[in-house]
Amino acid sequence: MTQAIYFVMEFHGTGDPYFGGTAADWALYKTEEGGQAFISAADAQRRKLVMAYYPTTTEAEQAGTAASTRKGRVSTLPAKLRPDLPTGQISWIVGNKHVGEDDSELAEDMADRAKRAGATDPDMVAQIVAYALACHRANQALVSHFRL
Q: How many Å apart are CA 40 and CA 20, to the nearest integer?
């Protein structure tokens, strides 16, 4: 089963800026300092920032609420998976790990595997890590459901 990953948008202002409105809809990105902030797409591209992806809507919503400085409307949206994302391999690797493994260890391992496999695009690595964590959450839910 293919898991979903999520990103966060903050909707702020009203009306199209071209016609005098103040609307500015920004996505949540990882900053150079390692934090997260809502940034316009043009600024993020200029600074070569990577979008922040999350394995669940709850985690995405919490991160968005914490990062919001403009106090706009924060929404969690499903991310479009890259067509070259190796979902089957990621699912298999995560399925062979223990459900009690720490998220940070899993994320580090998947990022290292991606880089060793030749993934040079930071957005690809970010999606790989988020997808692995989504698979990890699904495995944890199964164990909890069946009380294993």
A: 18
